[in-house]
Records
---
Amino acid sequence: MLIESSAYASRWRDVAPAAKALFALAGFVAAWLARSPVAYALLTAMLVLAALLGARVQLRNYVAVAVPPLGFLLLSCLTMLFGPDANGHWNVTTTMLPTIEHLALRSFAMLAAMLGLVLTTPLPDLLALLRKLRTPELLLDLMVLCYRMLFVMRQAWDESITAQTARLGYGSWRQAWRSTGLLAGQMAVQVWQRAAALQTAADARVYQGTLRFLPTAYPQAGRQMASAALAGALMLAIALGDRL
């Protein structure tokens, strides 16, 4: 939900999704081609500043969304520091440090490219772009249903928390643990019931297996695509120059 709210509040909300996707794709390719830490630093800085200064994504939202994948990356890098020695015993090893550094820097750059896309493009715009790219309709429908169910679960959670708080369900540690257990047990039932209601509403609207959204017009799409291509070419030039 934080990602979606940031996308709607972004200054690039009305920029053509194809232009933003082209810019992100160029960032991915450049991050894959680059080799040196300097090139990775330049690419990451360009992608992060584009989101923070260009799209005006709030810094706290950007950090909040980036922390989970960065934590997963840190855990992965730490596990790569352990390996067997000549006697078969597992110890901390430094032989993998160059590989870890390369993977971490590349992941930082690719993560910045991905965040720049998702934090500036609402899901309906992404779905429209994916539909133009001939993505299977079944996959798009699953994305929409998962997207909708996130809001259903959040609404059920907020309503249950409010009801329990009004009944002093979190007045003490013992009551808080009991309320949390009851909440976990009731969430499955409530989400199931609301999902069934969502299916009933779809059937009442003669759902035919494909979810459609009204298309959005982008009058300056050509100019935006040209700007994205120019910025992407700059990143590719940095990556290719690093390989020479």
---
Amino acid sequence: MTARASRYVAGAAAGLALTVSLTGCRTDGGGSDASDSGKPGSGKSSVHLTAAQEALGKAADKTADLKSFRATLSTSSVVSGRQTDLKGDLAFRLKPDPAMKLDVPAINTSGKTTDGFQEVFTGDTIYLKIPALAKRAGKPWVSFTTAEVSKATGVDVKGLQSQGRQADPALNAKMLTASKDVRKVGTETVGGVSTTHYQGTFALSDALSKLGTEQREEAQKIFNQAGLDKLNFSLWIDGRQLPRKITLTTPPGAKLKLDTAMNYVDFNKPVSIKAPAKSQVVDGLKLKGAGSNVPG
């Protein structure tokens, strides 16, 4: 993660921003082959790697076995002159049963602040707590199966969840290993933790090449819609080779203007994520026109 984690938020711009920041490029189970040998994050050394590339590779390796994490997500995106800003808290259980909870208190669109939303993703169901839907439903939560969201958005949600754990920090770290120009820019304190700050760029085509066939097809749908082919990034790595912060921004001239940040606050601590009580949930398909409200 995005992980990110998940992309299902109110508004297309916000949803896309989450997708870019949380949909990662893990190679395990994704069809990578021997061509990864010697590349950052492949677990094999190479005399051709710079010190900064080696640091990114170690971060990707170190985060590969995480069982859970918590993070704060902030993102700002501009599409056709319309700016959307949001900030939320994310909890993600990666093992043994993937589950996610995202809480965004408010959304600011072109200077106007509206109520935010809550989302719980567990099993094959997404639970949304969005004021507009709750008013129509008569209950706080509305549920959609991953199959229903996939049909509405054209994205294989279940496939992305099971194959990619889209909010996993390891996925983001792996994606950044595609950079050919990463460099160390200094040391900084992030959340009270001493870190080393790295900056660079990466081509999405290079990142996609690390994915298995199904993951690559879904990611291409998302990125092609956004008109993105390159991203700038900053990464802060602590003394345990864990990423403490990741930012992604689009270069000048991109169809979508994006500035998103993930601040990781906890790793491998217990994360309890449960579906809302059945008495508080309405099946989204029973709401007339509910499909148009499926985030994405």
